[in-house]
Design a protein that fits this description.
40% helix; 9 strands; 9-stranded mixed β-sheet
Length: 278
């Protein structure tokens, strides 16, 4: 039998030590992908905010997580190191003839990447977005390999106090970036629809929502008495009940979970396999 291909994955943890479901979900997706596709995914985690850790260039794939607090750049040392990491990857991909490094930015990381590439503004929302929401594709999103197999709209878990708005179309064109998706339309709210997904360049893509959220795990999490009461206190019982119902709908979160990050892994691994000097 042929030995499974080994792919090195760097998982950047931006949760600042807070208990979360995001990291578990990403680990589960990586494990499931390994088993399903016969690929040996060797993963190492980096604590970006508490320990200032960032990975070097010896990895094939990078996934950068969501996290708490304000994503607006504030001059922390970890932010400087994080942006240096993005810059090094960007320069590597421009200069090497061998396999490129693929990156997926999630939620907080997505907002940081938007600021790094200077393609839009990150502002505080008037109220917290929390729940399962429809995500609407733009024309570039319908051609995006990471979104292959999704319906329009598709559904995703959204949890944020900030938003990406006011895209700089000149800068987008300059760097070859494209907007993939926007939030649901709210005719009764006279506000710009926030950007929910973007491809920054050929090898770096990100989403405002959480593609890693798994329905069974999220459902168990929200039914813990402490989490249930927290959601009811902040958002009301109807919001809690609606989330539980939508998490159990196979056409919603489960579908997004089984497509987006697996598609990203598939694209990145195929690119490595086909690249010269691989």
């Amino acid at each position: 039998m042929n030995k499974p291909q080994t792919i090195r994955v760097a998982l950047l943890d931006l949760y600042e030590g807070q208990v979360n479901e995001g990291m578990r979900c990403i680990r589960d997706i990586l494990h499931q992908y390994s088993l399903t596709h016969g690929v040996n995914l060797v993963c190492k985690e980096f604590d970006v905010r508490l320990k200032g850790q960032t990975p070097d260039l010896h990895y094939d794939i990078y996934i950068s997580s969501g996290g708490p607090g304000s994503p607006v750049i504030s001059g922390h040392e970890w932010e400087r190191r994080y942006f240096e990491w993005v810059y090094e990857l960007e320069q590597y991909n421009k200069s090497t003839r061998g396999p490129k490094k693929h990156v997926y930015f999630i939620c907080h990381s997505f907002q940081l990447a938007v600021q790094y590439f200077r393609v839009a503004k990150v502002t505080k929302r008037k109220s917290t977005a929390f729940g399962v929401f429809p995500i609407h594709m733009l024309p570039d999103g319908k051609e995006e390999p990471v979104f292959t197999g999704l319906q329009d709209p598709f559904y995703a878990v959204d949890s944020r106090n900030y938003q990406v708005v006011e895209p700089d179309h000149h800068q987008l064109q300059q760097i070859g970036a494209s907007i993939l998706a926007i939030e649901k339309e709210r005719p009764h709210v006279p506000l710009e629809r926030a950007i929910m997904g973007m491809r920054f360049n050929e090898y770096m893509v990100g989403t405002q929502f959480h593609p890693e959220a798994d329905a069974p795990g999220m459902s168990r999490y929200l039914q813990r008495e402490d989490k249930k009461q927290m959601v009811i206190k902040n958002h009301g019982f109807e919001k809690w009940q609606s989330m539980i119902e939508q998490l159990n709908d196979p056409d919603k979160i489960l579908y997004t979970y089984s497509h987006i990050l697996p598609n990203f892994l598939h694209v990145a691994i195929d690119a490595k396999r086909l690249a010269p000097n691989a």
